[in-house]
Design goal:
Layout: H1 2-11, E1 13-17, H2 21-41, H3 56-59, H4 62-68, E2 75-77, H5 80-90, H6 92-98, E3 103-108, E4 118-120, E5 122-128, E6 139-140, E7 150-157, E8 181-182, E9 191-192, H7 194-197, E10 212-216, E11 221-222, E12 233-242
Antiparallel strand pairs: 1-10, 2-5, 3-4, 3-12, 5-12, 6-11, 7-10, 7-12, 8-9
Length: 243
């Protein structure tokens, strides 16, 4: 864990082994069940025969996919046992370095990440088609989240550096000014200008293994993570802050 803390402080992120194969399959099933229930609510019948999350885009149209990627649909509950594993056993020493306060997993129940009240032990998931350009550009979460909040990015389908997040190592060492931001015409993230991004190191995409998670600092610039793989990418984000 000492090496993970050193890596986190130097680069703004750390890769940690958190889940086993059984747990990954459990959350894939949660996402699949969520999609099918939400599809029924929205009168989308095409997912009724879907059995494998990996086959999702063979059953859904692009138009209906957009409907299912609203904030209400793409929310899943993190089981209590996994919350304990995440907070105490896996990330505890990194968190305690920054604060002695107790931490919680949360998700805003509002339409936007900065609106609404927090619900605990919930996370948001995303599903991205290969080569799709509908991904958030470079951004830093501190612009949209209310206070100092960590993010853990958990891949469920797609693990290699063709699927993982684009990260700018060391960019967390600067509190990015509002003057570095630009307009986002396709999403809600507060995007950062390309000329500002170019000041930092070359983007890096970790090569993950199943069960590995990227924990990153709220000031770390990341994004523009096009799915370069041959299959869909499924992941969920765990937001963590002090109580």
């Amino acid at each position: 864990m000492k090496n993970s803390l050193k890596e986190f402080n130097e680069n703004g992120f750390a890769v940690l082994k958190v889940f086993n194969k059984k747990t990954i399959e459990k959350y894939k099933k949660k996402v699949l069940n969520n999609l099918k229930k939400s599809a029924e609510k929205k009168s989308i019948k095409s997912l009724r025969k879907l059995k494998r999350l990996e086959d999702y885009f063979s059953f859904i149209s692009d138009e209906d996919h957009v409907k299912l990627m609203d904030r209400e649909t793409r929310t899943i509950k993190i089981d209590n046992a996994d919350t304990k594993t995440i907070m105490k056993e896996k990330f505890g020493k990194i968190f305690s370095y920054f604060s002695d306060k107790e931490y919680k997993i949360f998700r805003s129940n509002g339409v936007y990440s900065w609106a609404g009240s927090d619900i605990t032990n919930y996370a948001g998931f995303r599903i991205v088609k290969p080569k799709s350009q509908k991904v958030a550009g470079y951004h830093s979460d501190h612009y949209n989240l209310k206070n100092f909040r960590f993010t853990a990015w958990v891949p469920l389908v797609g693990f290699s550096n063709k699927y993982s997040l684009n990260l700018l190592p060391g960019s967390h060492l600067i509190k990015h000014p509002n003057s570095a931001t630009t307009v986002n015409n396709i999403g809600t993230a507060t995007l950062i200008k390309n000329e500002y991004v170019n000041k930092f190191k070359k983007p890096f995409r970790p090569n993950l293994k199943p069960g590995e998670v990227i924990l990153f600092h709220p000031y770390l610039i990341h994004g523009n993570s096009v799915n370069l793989g041959k299959t869909l990418r499924v992941s969920f984000e765990i937001r963590i802050c002090t109580i």
